[in-house]
Structure formats: structure tokens, C-alpha cells
Amino acid sequence: MTMQYGTFDDKNKEYVITSPDTPRPWSNYLGSTEYGAIITNNAGGYSFYKSGGMGRFVRFRFNSVPLDQPGRYVYFHDHGTRDFWSASWQPVGKPLRRYKSICRHGTAYTTIESEYDGILSEVTYFVPLGKSFEIWKVRVTNKSKKVRNLSAFTYLEYAANWNALDDLLNIQYVQYITQMNVVDGIIDHGTNVSIPEMPENFKEKDQGRHTFQALAGGRVVGYDTDRETFLGPYRSYANPVAVEQGKCSNSIAYGDNPCGSLQSKFTLKPGQTKEFLVIAGIGKAEKEGKNALKEFSDISKADVELEKLKSFWHKRLEGFSVKTPDTELNATVNTWGIYNCLMTYAWSRAASLIYSGIDRDGLGYRDTVQDFLGVMHSIPDEVRKRLELMITGQASTGGALPVIMPISHAPGKEPLPKEEDYRSDDALWLFNAIPAYVNETGDISFYTKVLPYADKGEDTVFGHMKRAIEFSFKRSGAHGLPCGLHADWNDTLRFGPRGESVLLRCSFDMHSKHMST
Amino acid sequence: MTMQYGTFDDKNKEYVITSPDTPRPWSNYLGSTEYGAIITNNAGGYSFYKSGGMGRFVRFRFNSVPLDQPGRYVYFHDHGTRDFWSASWQPVGKPLRRYKSICRHGTAYTTIESEYDGILSEVTYFVPLGKSFEIWKVRVTNKSKKVRNLSAFTYLEYAANWNALDDLLNIQYVQYITQMNVVDGIIDHGTNVSIPEMPENFKEKDQGRHTFQALAGGRVVGYDTDRETFLGPYRSYANPVAVEQGKCSNSIAYGDNPCGSLQSKFTLKPGQTKEFLVIAGIGKAEKEGKNALKEFSDISKADVELEKLKSFWHKRLEGFSVKTPDTELNATVNTWGIYNCLMTYAWSRAASLIYSGIDRDGLGYRDTVQDFLGVMHSIPDEVRKRLELMITGQASTGGALPVIMPISHAPGKEPLPKEEDYRSDDALWLFNAIPAYVNETGDISFYTKVLPYADKGEDTVFGHMKRAIEFSFKRSGAHGLPCGLHADWNDTLRFGPRGESVLLRCSFDMHSKHMST
């Protein structure tokens, strides 16, 4: 086992993973808060619309073996040798002495380049700016000296219900609501198709939902939409029967477990290259699918969109940069530190291989307000909006709601938290975030902006801060220290009804000084 | 693919699955409501203490690929050939032309007999009566003409938290609470070991819990308790690195994903047989583990216990039997119909490969009261107890709580259901169950027994029935038919606030007649 798995590519702002057998999967994020996706260095992961927990249309089982399966796979079958492999090392997992693979995690895109048996493949995964679909840009080159007859098979395992909890655990229900379809070669992944659609209502899990998967620049010669048919009984992602046999069965899942695989065939002369795009996203095959396919009928448009995406991200990252003798420090400060802060800001622990998005759907108060600090200099306008949202998540008592649901938050109308549910530190983090915003922007008038409390009433931003201090004063213990309540910053301490927090007192003193200056 | 996978063995009351590649996994139940377990014909499944959702200490990911993994595996490694396989066809899945396997699903036990490369193995899984541990009785015979040096490896994938929802989805928490240990060759699977234990409190998921795994009749030469160490990166249950290499690493999981594998070594001359027991169950290695090991130090005791279990079950099934010219009808009526009714009665859709036990933990009112009818003649005394429980789940309004939690149900103190949550048919099923009980036992005095309502007050059993009718009368619609409320028997119809149910009216008429006679 090597201990060196990759290096920073500072110029391209990429991390290059040179050996695919990393001890743990290495994730990147694609897309935006509108359409988000996780992808690992072996193409594992899932996609979701707005919410990792309630809009997850690609299935993912946490803690699987291997840890990052399933994912977004492209399989190849060689009709001459009858051998098969995947464009990422996993899930087929050919011996690494014969299979070479490099993964480039870039800024909201990931490229996996592999070579096996004289066939070079390069798949770049990204979400074009402003779109609610993802693109897998596939490039296959014959580096051997023989003509090669190949099939490519895409694979996505779909959720039977976009609500991840139901999809993973309420099997007696969700195995009856899938209705797959194929319209002019475009897969339509439908769930509960006969009941009304309420696209923006994530609280109603039982509603019609559709996603599509299309192929641009390739000829679809077959498909499968039933997982068990594509994989075959007692097989796994390592050896789907359709891929092994080089032929899909044109299965249509109606109930059971859905998947989406499009098979395309092509012949490559020595040195020849074939390119095609997989486009998968929100909406019906008939409408959004066809529109996306039309938009990318000239597949070189994907290159243009990828460049736009890179420029957008590089610009975001370049607001603050350092040049030191330590190149790794430079890479961390100039690219990866801020990149990761921006992703944390976007998803706030709601979607990863660890966070399922289910019990953390929404913005945890203290986490979110802390997250502002890392991205203030990069996206102050976006932070301002969310900071105002969080301030309206403070109750008129001065304490804060533990979690703000951005989609449904109703300032002035939220129920007050129960006294025993307050965390002692939540609203106090405003003392870090608000001054940081003012320092960054110079907009001192922010202190006088009037914003509502979560439950009732309103106040200036400064008034909100004052109320946070008063909240702590009123909840002090026998030694005059503020009580820890449900938790202080340390979630694992149990303070009891009157237990005091020294940690809180320290920050509290600091904040009181700030208020008096 | 064959279409014939097995046959009934009427004499032994077993279903014999003669080909292991069944289209879907075929499950059996082991144990009791105290210690329950699911096992498939390829040894997939999980175990739980009292509750499939809140007491599940063996991990299971629903809808996996294959559908029934992980499970209770015994692997073999041949130190001569360096080949390896499993005592059930899956998870290693050797080619079926070389691997023969028969599964016998019996009455609360399952035997898997396999032969590969001259080695015959037979594993019988069962829970001894009255015990809170399971036994895997393993018998290995050398049918070849050579001396064979073998290792056997057990495998159980443990839950990091007994609460299945947390274990599957709250990864950021549960990957920090495991503490495995090995005490005198007995695995101790500990979770949250530093916080207090509350064995009977299933509402508190954050508490210390222990299970053990021991080997009787074999010499433990190594172990693994860390899943990633045993399996190896980017491998699966089909090819654990420890099994492939023939050597465990003595890993101790502290956090991360726990598992339990005990390696034992033995040499078999031609014709020689080796027997050992795997004992896995509730409690600490130091105490309950050592006690169980002591109890079964003479491993032939397992045969005695297995016979006791068979007698117990066969006696339960033999209360009613038929002899017709159709042997399959006989098998269904005399064994499998009543056996499945008893299992449904026991678990009420709370634990299977489909029911995760999470949203169905507890007794659904109408399901449970219907389930009585299938087992009344077999276990009338047990039914009486649960029937009384269900009657105390009827509210003083006459309607019923949708779900009764047997562990925590508090008659007279339960909150009233919201009006919109009543199902119209729940309490009406008492009209099938109560007379059936009286008919079976002749105990007409049951009608005059006084039992509390769920929320307040009490009444005779007959009075409870009357209240159920009144509930329906009070909730009639424009045509004088009873309203469907949240649902009638058909859960998928939406009646709206005043919609009426013809289905309900029919049963209602029948019940009214019953009351007046």
C-alpha cells in the first residue's frame, strides 16, 4: 500500500489523486444549492435537488462495502475480447498492475482518467452554471493497434422516493411507486407519477417526481431501468450481467428498484477518439430531457460550459491569496481552504458520505453562523442574506432556534423553543459573525437594520445582539457564570438544569466588552 | 435458471431449498420476541433484542446488492490450496457447478449444508428456548482423500448503535461510539460503554450496550473486530482479505465500523469431522459470554437444545391438522400456514428484509387484531394477553390508537388520538377477534371482564365493543354510511373529512347483527 496518493496541481486548482486505492473515498462536491452532488475518486456518490435528505433522487446506502457505492458509473464492454471494466477503477476493480487511473478533483468538477487494455477514457462530471442537471463528459480513445468494437453502459441507481429516509427504510411502500419509462432514448425516472407534483414542497414526500437521463453524441442501442435486471441476481456493481454479456435487456421497472443504464455502441480505429455526454437531471424525459439534449446537441458546448464553471469558481477563490515559500500552504490558503469553506457554507453538513441530510436537513444555528467566518471575504453579499436569515432565527427571548429550515422558515411565526432545548451559545456566535461582516464590507449601517425575531417582535441588528447577552444574563447559575443549558459549544457535555459553563463565560466576557466599546 | 428451487419435507416440517440461487432471498425467523433473528437461504439477515428497530445489534442495510447482505457467515480457508469459500453459497459465491448447497428452513431453525472441493459443511442456526443468544452449530467433514488444513472464520457485522435509524444514517455520531474488546477469546461488542446501561429502556438510544460472540469446541487463533481491517479496502463480503490470506489481524475497533470474526484452525484427515459452536448474543463477554460458553462447553448440548426447540414448535403446530390427497395443501395447512401466522403474530411486520422495524416498531392496531385469527387455535393463552393489551388501546371515544407500543403502553394514560388520525376500521376488528377467542376457549365470561380504555375510564369487554359501534355511528356521512376517516381497511384511499366507506358499512352491518344476538 502506498502512502502517497496524490498531489496539488496549483495551476489548475486541482487535487490529483494518482492511485485510486485510497484508504478512504475522497469526495468532491458538484453543483450548487439548487442541484447538488457528491462524487468520490472512484465515481461513488449521489445527486439531489435542493435537499440532500428530501430531494435525493440518486440512491445511496451509507456505510456500504465499499464505503462509496453506488455512484455514477460508465462501464465498457469490448465485443472482441468480451472483457469489461469501468471508467473509474471501482466498481469493477481490475488489478491495478493493468489498470491505471488518475482522478482530478477540481473546483466543482471531477475528472477521472483511466487506461486499461489500450483504451483510454476520461470522464468529467460537472453541473453547468444555473442548470438543474449534471453532465458526464465522456472521451474514449483507442491507444491500441487494433480496431476495437466497444459498448459503453451508463449506470445510476435511482431512489424510489426522493425522501431519503423512505427510500432507504420504508421498503414496503417505496417498492410500489416507481414507474420508469424511456422516451425517444431518454430515460424517465418517475416516482408516484399519478399523484400531483409539488416541486418546491419538500415537506410532502408523497408526490409525483421525475428525473431524466439522456445521451448526447452517442446512439442508444439499449437500456435497462430495473436494477435487478441490469445487475443480475447475486451479482454486484463489480459484474453487472448486462455489462458482462455486452447487452442491455430494455427492462422497464414498475415498482421494485429503479436504475438507469443507457447502452451505446461504437467502433474505434487505432488512435481514434469518441466523445459523448451523459445528461441527468430534474424533470421529465419528454420535456426537460429533450430540452437539455437539444441544448447540448453540439456536444462541444459542454467544453464551453466547463470553462465557464472553472472561471466562476476560480474568481470566487482569488479574492484573497498568499504567496509563501511553502507551496502546500499556498495551495491550502489560495484554493482548498476557501473551497472547502464555501462547500461547508453551501451544505452545512447536510450532504456527504457521512451526513445523510436526514437529521441535519436545515441550518444548524451555531454551525451556520460559524461557517460565515470562512467565506466572508469571498461572498459577502451571499453571506449578508443568510446572516439576516439566521438573525431572524433568534427568538424574542434572545436565544436561538437550534435549526433554521431555509425553505420554510417563517420569521415572526415560528414557535418558541422549549426552555430545555436552548443551547447556551447559539446566538452568541452572532458576535463573531456580525462584526466580521461589517469589517469586511464597511457597512456599519447594518447594525441599525431592523429584522424580526423568530417568534414575534423585531429589533435592530444591534438590538438582537443585546438580546442575546440578556438571554445569557438571565440564565446564570450559583457562581454567576452563564448556564450551559442543553449544550454549550461542546454538544457532549450534560450540564443539568443549573450547570454553568466556563467556556461560555470566556466568550461572554469578550462579547460584553465588544458591546460596551 | 431453474424454476424449481425446493420442496416440502413434511416429516421434518422443513422446506428444503435445493438450489441456492433463488430469484429473491428466502427468509426464516429464529428465536422469540425476546431475541429475534431473520435468516435467508444464503445466511443473510440480522439479529435483535426485543425490537427490530431499537434493539438491532447486527447491522443490515436494506435494499443492498445482493438484497440479503450482510449476514451470519462462516468462511473457510484451505491452507493447502489457498482457496477460500463460505459455508453458505453467498457471499463468496463459488460457481454452482462446483459448489452444492441445500438450505433447510425449519421451525425456528435453519440448516445450510454445502459441499465444495471435498469439504462438506453443515451449519444450523437457532436460538435455544428461553435464551437471549443464538447458536450456529458448525460441522465440517473432509470427504476428500487428502489431509486438509483449514481455518474457519465467523463473520457478523455489528451495529454501532442498537437504534437502527442511528446506525444506518447518523454516521457522524455512531462511528465514534464503538468499543470492541476480546476477553479470553470472546468478542465483546460494546457501544457507548462509558454511559449507563438501561437494558429495558428502548426509548433511550444513547446508553451502554454489549453483545458477545464466543466459540465452543474450537481453538481461537485470531480475531478481527474492525470491519475495514477484516474485509480490506475496496473488497466485499465475497473476498475478505483476512479470509483470502488465511489470517486475521487481531484488530480492535475503537470507533469506525465494528464486526466480529473469530478464526479457528483445524486439521481433518480423510473422513474426519470437526464440530464447533458459535454463540452470539446479549451481554458482556466477561459475564454472559463466559456463562454461555460454560453452559455449552459440552457442545453436544446444542443437539439437545435443538431437539427441544423442534418439539416445542412441532407441538404448537399440531393443534390442528388435515390430511387430504393434496400433499402440498397438507404441508401448507399443517405446517407453513400456521407457522407463518405465528411469526406474523410475533413480529407484526416489524422485522424482515422489507420491514426495517423503524417506522413500524410497535403493534399496528388493525394488523395485530387481524393476526389473532390465524393463531387463536394454536396459542389461545398468549392471544388472550395480547388481545387484552389491544382492547386497552381503544380510546374512550371508541376509536383506537393507530399503534400500540407493547413495551411502554400505559392504559388510562395515553393521549387521545387527533380526530383526523383515527382509522375507521381499527376497533371494529375486535368483532372478529373477541368472538373467535370465546369460540375457541368457551370462556364466555371474557365479555364481562373489565378493562381500561387507553386514555381514561374502563368498561367490560362487551362495553368496549359497544363503544366501537357508537364511534362509527357518531361518524356517519350524508348517506348514513360510516365515514372512512384517515383510512378504512384500504390505506391508500383518501376519503376527505366526510367521505363514506361502503366497505366499512358491510362489516358494520355484520357486527351490529352480532351485537344484537
Quick overview:
In chain A, 26% of the residues lie in helices and 26% in strands. Chain A has helices at 164-169, 171-174, 227-231, 241-245, 285-295, 301-317, 327-347, 365-375, 380-391, 430-441, 461-474, 502-516; strands at residues 6-9, 14-17, 27-31, 35-40, 47-49, 73-78, 84-86, 99-105, 109-116, 119-126, 133-142, 148-157, 178-183, 186-191, 209-216, 220-226, 258-268, 273-282, 363-364, 403-404, 450-452, 458-460.
Low-confidence stretches of chain A: none
Compute the gyration radius of chain A: what is it? 25 Å
Please summarize the sheet with the most strands of chain A. 10 strands, antiparallel
What is the overall pLDDT average of chain A?
94
Query: Which class do the helix and strand fractions of chain A yield?
Result: alpha+beta
Strand order of the largest sheet of chain A: 1-2-8-9-10-11-18-15-14-13
- How many helical elements of chain A? 12
Instruction: Please tally the β strands of chain A and state the result.
Output: 22
Beta-strand percent range of chain A:
25-35%
- Quaternary organisation: homodimer
Helix content class of chain A: 25-40%
End-to-end separation of chain A: 57 Å
Largest inter-chain interface?
A-B, 36 and 36 residues
Shape of chain A: globular
